[in-house]
């Protein structure tokens, strides 16, 4: 399959790409912010490892929110 250029995409495809990108960046920013403000004892594993994992598309931030945090007690 040939690579598509931005100019080859329809308006709907461009909009979907922009919305998906914005959602991904917002989710990652929220996860990094939470990680930075959460005490290390409330994180499952090392904070540095989670910081790298969060950078992996949608899967990283979602994994952090589901698996990386311990409840605030």
TrEMBL record:
<dbReference type="Pfam" id="PF13396">
    <property type="entry name" value="PLDc_N"/>
</dbReference>
<protein>
    <submittedName>
        <fullName>PLDc_N domain-containing protein</fullName>
    </submittedName>
</protein>
<keyword id="KW-1133">Transmembrane helix</keyword>
<dbReference type="InterPro" id="IPR027379">
    <property type="entry name" value="CLS_N"/>
</dbReference>
<keyword id="KW-0812">Transmembrane</keyword>
<feature type="transmembrane region" description="Helical">
    <location>
        <begin position="49"/>
        <end position="67"/>
    </location>
</feature>
<dbReference type="GO" id="GO:0005886">
    <property type="term" value="C:plasma membrane"/>
</dbReference>
<feature type="domain" description="Cardiolipin synthase N-terminal">
    <location>
        <begin position="27"/>
        <end position="69"/>
    </location>
</feature>
<keyword id="KW-1003">Cell membrane</keyword>
<keyword id="KW-0472">Membrane</keyword>
